[in-house]
# Entry
Amino acid sequence: MTTHTPEFLRLTSHVWPLHGGPGNAGEGVIIGIVDTGINPFHPSFSSSSSDSYGPHVDFMGDCEIAPEFPRGSCNKKIIAARHFSAAASANGDFNASSLGNNSPYDTEGHGSHVASIAAGNYGVPVIVNGFDYGSASGMAPRARLAIYKALYSTEGYMADIIAAIDKAVEDGVDILSLSLGPSSPDEIPSSPFLEVFDVALLFAVKAGVFVAQAAGNSGPSQASIMSFSPWITTVGSGTTDRRFQESITLGSQHKVAGVGLSPATPGGVYTDYKMVFAADALINDTSSPSSDCILDPSTLDVSLLQDSILICTYPYDNSIIQDFLFENLEKTAKIVNAAGLVVVANPEEGPFDASGLFIFNISVILISDLGSSLALLEYYNASTLRDNNGKVLSFDAKGSIQDGRLAVYDREAPMVNAYSSRGPGVLDNGQTPADLLKPDILAPGELIWAAWNPVISGIDNFQGSDFAMISGTSMATPHIAGIAALIKQNNPSWSPAAITSAMVTTGATVDSRGMPIFAELSQDGSDLHPATPFDYGGGLVNASAAMDPGLIFDADFKSYINFLCSVPGIDPSSVHSATGRNCTNVLEWPSELNTPSITIANLVASRKVIRILTNVAATERYTASIIEPVGVFVSVNPSDFTIQEGGTQNISVSLTAVQADGNFHFGQLILTGVFGHRVQIPISVCTISAIPT
# Structure
C-alpha cells in the first residue's frame, strides 16, 4: 500500500509540497522503531554520499557492528541500530548463534516492513516475481530511522522491550513507532495504566517523544483494545480504495470473481483451456480419491492435466497453514504442467478466508465466496459428460484466468478492518470501560506493500522477495508515526499531546463517497455496521488538516499523573510506586483529562467536563454545534467565542442523561472557525441509573 497510501492520504498533493516535496518531507525528524530489527541492504533504507541530510547534533545513538550487520549498515538514513536480548537470554530463549539474532539485522521481515512504511525512501520500485507493482514511499521519506531490535520470531520479553524504549528516548528520537503489544486480551494486566510498559512510555512522552502503538489485531469484539493509556496514540487499521481484481471467464462467457496476485493463463482472455476437477484427474488405481486441494502429484494424470486448468476445493482443516497449502498447490500445478489453478470453496463447508492476497508464479485464482464457487462448479458439471459410473467421457468445460496483479481504485474507503481491536479503553483485565477513547485514530493497515528481507528462511509467501504485502494494525501504526514526523517537522515545538490532538480532531468520519465510514464484523468483509469512535477514534487520519488544526487540546506529564490519581481502583501509593510522583491534584473524574475527545463510561444524571483549547493559528472566532448521543442532552458554554493567536479558551461541556439503557452512544462536538478550521471532538457516553459497585 505504500505504493498507494501516500496518494490515498493525500500526502503527495497536500502535505509533502508544504515541506518542499518528498525529498524534504520529514527532514530533521528521527523515528525510533522497536521491532525485529532492519534489513540495512534494502533500497528503502539506502543513502549515498550525495544525500545532503541536515545535522542531528543532539542525537546520541550508535550503531552495532556484526558479521551480518557490517560497518556501513548505518548510513544517513539509518542513524542508529542496536539489539536487546538480555531477558531472552536469561530465560534461555535466545540463540546467539542463529543468523542475525546477535545484531540489529532483521531475520523476520516485520521490522523492515514497518520502518519503510514510516520513513522508507521515496519512489523505490516494488518488483516482485518480475512484475512491477509501482513505487513505494514512506510517509516521511526524508525522516531518519533509529532501530531498536527487541523482538525475536515476532515475540519478545518485556525487559528487553523496555530497555529498547529507554535507549531510544535517551538517544533522542522524536517519534516512537511500536507495532507490538499483548498477544491477546488474556494478557491485559490488572492495571494497564501502571504496567511497566505504559509507565516507560509515560516517561518517553515526558521527554517529548510522540508514541504511536498498534491497537492490536483482536477485533471486532468490543473492548478488545491492546493499547491503553491516554499518553499513547493508539492506531486502528482500515482499508483503502485499492483492490486487486481477478476473474476466470468460463466457456459460457460468465465471469467468476476471485483473488490472487498471479499472471493470466497464457494467451489471456483470448485462449480457453480445458478445466479438470482434481477428483476427475486421479490415476485409476488411486485408493483414496479426493477433490480437496491437499494433492499428491504422483496420484494425478499428468497427460490429462497438461495445459489444463486444475480445480480443487479448499480443505477445511484447522491445522493447515495457508502458506504451506498454496505453495504446495503451486508446486503440484507446475509438476503436472497445468496452465492454471482454481481453488473453490467446498459447498459442504462454506466460504474460506482469502483476504491475505497470496502471490503466485503461475495463474491461480482463489474463489472464496460460496455462491461464486457453486456457479463455477455447476458450469463444470453441466459441461462434463460422464458415463453411468460417473467416469468422465468428455471434458468440455473451458476457461481462462485474467491477470490478478492489476490494481483498480474504486472501493469505498476506508472501512475499519475486522481484525482491528475495538474500544472503549479499559481499566483492567476484566475489560471494565474507562473514561477514555481508544483507539485514537485510523490509518491504512490492509495489504501493505513495504520492505522485506529476501533471505528469510522457511515457508513464506514472500520468500526471496524484497517486498511483502501484509496486513495488521502493525502496518497502520507506522503510517501514523510517519505523519506525526511530518507534523513535528512543521511544528517542532508541539508536544506529543498536541500532535495527537491535531490528528484526532481533524480525522475523516466519512468515506470516499461522502458516506459514514463502516466497520467490518467478519474477516471477508461481508458483514458491516456503521463505525463508531470505538472503531476508528477520531476517524481516518487527515494529514493535510492535521498540519493546521486551528485548535489543540494539550496535556503534559503532570496532567497524566493527575489522571492516574483519579482512575478507579488505583490508589496514590500505586501511582507513587510506579512513577515516583505523589497525587497532589486529583481530578474529580478521569474524563477531566484534557483529551481531544469526551468519553464517560458511567453517566448518572449529569456531568460537566472542562476542556482547555489552545489556538495554534491566527486569531479566529469559533461557533459550537453538537451532534448529541442518543439519550444524552449536551450543551457547551461558551458556544461562540473568539480566541487569540497562541491564546487559550476554557469550554464547559455539560452532559445530562435523558434515558439510561446501559449502552454506549456516540456524538460529536464541532467547533467551526470563520477561517475554515473545523475541530471535531468525539463524544462517547454510556448512561446508567446508578454507579456500579
